[in-house]
Amino acid sequence: MTSKSAAAAARATVYGYPRQGHNRELKKAIEGYWKGRVTADALRATAAGLRRNTWQQLADAGVHEVPTGDFSYYDHVLDTSVMVGAIPERHRDAVDADALDGYFAMARGTQDVAPLEMTKWFDTNYHYLVPELGPDTVFTANTVKQVAELTEALALGLTARPVLVGPVTYLLLAKPAPGAPADFEPLTLLDRLLPVYAEVLADLRAAGAEWAQLDEPALVQDRTPAELNAAERAYRDLGALTDRPKLLVASYFDRLGDALPVLAKAPVEGLALDFTEAAAANLEALAAAGGLPGKRLVAGVVNGRNIWINDLQKSLSTLGTLLGLADRVDVAASCSLLHVPLDAAAERDIDPQILRWLAFAKQKTAEIVTLAKGLAQGTDAVTGELSANRADLASRAGSPITNDPAVRARAAAVTDADARRSRPYAERAAAQRARLGLPLLPTTTIGSFPQTAELRVARADLRTGRIDTAGYEERIRTEIQEVVSFQEKTGIDVLVHGEPERNDMVQYFAEQLTGYLATQHGWVQSYGTRYVRPPVLAGDISRPEPMTVRWTTYAQSLTDRPVKGMLTGPVTMLAWSFVRDDQPLGDTARQVALALRDEVNDLETAGTSVIQVDEPALRETLPLRAADRPAYLAWATEAFRLSTSGVRPDTQIHTHMCYAEFGDIVQAIDDLDADVISLEAARSHMQVARELASHGYPREAGPGVYDIHSPRVPSAEEAASLLRTGLKAIPAERLWVNPDCGLKTRGWPETRASLENLVAAARTVRGELPAT
Question: Of 308, 246, 304, whose CA–CA distance to 273 is shortest?
Answer without folding.
Answer: 304
